[in-house]
Amino acid sequence: MRLHPTRATFHVALAGAAVASMGVALRLGAVVAFGGAMILAVAVGRAFALSAVTRLRAAGFEMVWSTSKRVLRVARGETVTFGAELRNRSGDEMRGISLRAIASSMLEAKVEPETVDLLPNSRLEVQVSVLAKRVGRWGVHGMALEVRGIPAGGEALYEVPLMFANPFGVEVFPRALHALVTSPRGGRSRRAAEAGRAAPALGEGDEIRELREHVPGDPFKRIAWKASARRGRLIVRDMEREERDVVWLMLDASVELWAGPEGRAPLDDMVDEVSALAARHLARGDRVGLAVLASRPRTWLTPAAGASHAVKIAAALASAASMIDVDRCELDEWEIAQRVSEHARPLDPRGLHDIPKSNLDLLATRAQALRARAPFAPRVPFATTSREQQLRHYVAAFGIEVPPRVEGERDKTHATMAGALDMIFNDKKARASVLYIFSPAPAPTSDILGVIRRLRARHVDVRWSLPPFERAVTPPEAGVTPTRVREVVDEAVWLRAVAARTRAEKILRRLGVRPRVTERRIAG
C-alpha cells in the first residue's frame, strides 16, 4: 500500500530538517530535539495513516453501482448519468479526495462530488456522468480516490490511493439505430407499412399492370375472358407486384480510418452514416444487409427487415471499433498479457500472487475464470494460439481498449471488398437493388471496378461515400501563413486529403457511380 504525504506534511518535514540542521550548526541541543520531534511526528503520522486505512479496508470500505444492470446502452455523443454508492463500514471517519472513474479513453467520465466525507458506518451516493465519444463496447473498470483520515485535531498528514475494481460496461451505439433498438414500442406498432414501391418486374399482386395478348406459357387463371370475348382473341392480365428494396451497406473498417481524435475520425462519421441509412430503409420496410470488411470479412449480415435485425446491425457496427484481433492490434502477446495482469490483479482473490510473471498459460487460465465477471460477452477474437485468444478474449469482455496496428490494411481490404461484391452479384435469392459503399476509392486497376460495372449493368443503384479525411485535421485559415510545425503539417495533410478526394470522385464518375463525402452527424 502506497502512502503519499500531503503538502502540509512535506512542509513539516522540511521545516523539521531545517530546524535540526540549525540546532546542529549552533550546537543547541534543545533546537536539535525540537526539529527531530517534528520529523518523528511525520513518521508516526505515517504509521497511524497506514493502520487507519488497513482497518478501513478490512472493515469493508467498498463501492457498488446503484444500477443492477451490468451494461448500459447509450448513443454516441450522448451523456448518461448513473449512481454509485460508497460504503464506510468501519468505526473511523474518513475523507476521500480526487474521486474519479477509471474508464476507457473513449468515454469521458466525471464524478460528482470529487471530495466526500464519510462518517463511521455510513454510506454516500455519488453521480457518474459518462460522455460516449466513439461507437463500441467500452469499460468503466471502477473508481479511485485518495483517502485522508480526519483526526480530531485537524488535517491528515498522508493520502492513500485506493481503487475499487467493479467492472461496468457501456455499449455505445450509433445515434440513429440507438433510437430504433431502444424504442419501447412492440407488436403491431413496430411493423412497417404494408405498402411497398411498385416494381418494374411482373408478379402476383392485386393491381392490374396491363392487358396483353396471350403467349404460350401464360397460366389460364390470368386470362381476361370478357376482354378476350370482346376482341376475339385471348387476352391476359399482367398483375403488378409490390416489392421492397434489397439494400446492401458495405463498410470499410480498416484500422487507418480510425486516425484522428476520438469522435472525429473518418470511421466515426462513416459508422453514423451507415446507421442512419440502415434506420431509414428499415423504417420503410426494406430488407437491409450489412458487410463490415477489413483485411478479413468482419461482419456479414444477409438482408432482412424488422426491429430484431436493427439490433443485429447496431451490434455489428459497435464491434467494428474493436482492435482486439491480432492482425489489427499493435500489442503482441506479452503486452496483452501485461494489460490482462494489471486489470485482473484487483479482481482476483489472491491478487495473482501465485502466478509467475513468465507463466502466460496459468495467467490465461485465470483470466478465463475471471471473465465471468465481465460485462460483455463478445465473439472470440482472432489469434494465432489458443492462449493468446483467451487473453484477448478477456480484454474484449471487459472493454479494455488497445491501440490499432500502425501498418494500414488498405490493399487487403479492397481485395476482400472485391470478393464481397462478387458474392452480392451472384446472390440469386436476394438480388440487390441498392448498394451503398463506404470506403476510399479503389485504384484504377482494382478488381472492384469490374464487379461494379457488372452490378451497374444489372441496374443496381451503386452509391459510394468517401471518408472525410480532411475533417480529422484543422483546415488552414484563408490568408494566414502557418508559423508552427504542427500548423504546416496540418495544412499539408488537409490539402493532400482534398486532392485525393477529388481524384477519387473522378474515378467513380467514370463508372457511373454517384460519389459523395460522408456527412458529419455529430459535431466534433
What do you see in this structure?
α5 (about 265-285) runs antiparallel to α6 (about 305-320) and α8 packs parallel to α9 (about 385-395). Residues about 190-205 have low confidence and may be disordered. About 35% of the residues lie in helices and about 30% in strands. The protein has helices at about 5-25, 30-60, 175-180, 225-230, 265-285, 305-320, 335-345, 360-370, 385-395, 410-425, 445-455, 485-510, and strands at about 5, 60-65, 70-75, 80-90, 95-105, 105-110, 115-120, 120-130, 135-150, 160-175, 195-215, 235-245, 245-250, 285-295, 295-305, 435-440, 460-465, 515. The chain has about 525 residues and is an alpha/beta fold. The strands form four sheets. Strands 1, 3, 5, 7, 9 and 10 form a six-stranded mixed beta sheet that branches. The chain has a six-stranded mixed beta sheet with strand order 15-14-13-16-17-18, with helices on both faces. It has a four-stranded antiparallel beta sheet with strand order 2-4-8-6. The chain is elongated. It has twelve helices and 18 strands.
Number of strands: 18
- As residue ranges, the low-confidence spans are 192-205
Q: Beta fraction of the residues?
A: 25-35%
Radius of gyration: 32 Å
InterPro entries: DUF58
Pfam families: DUF58
Keywords: Membrane, Transmembrane, Transmembrane helix
Domain DUF58: 210-320
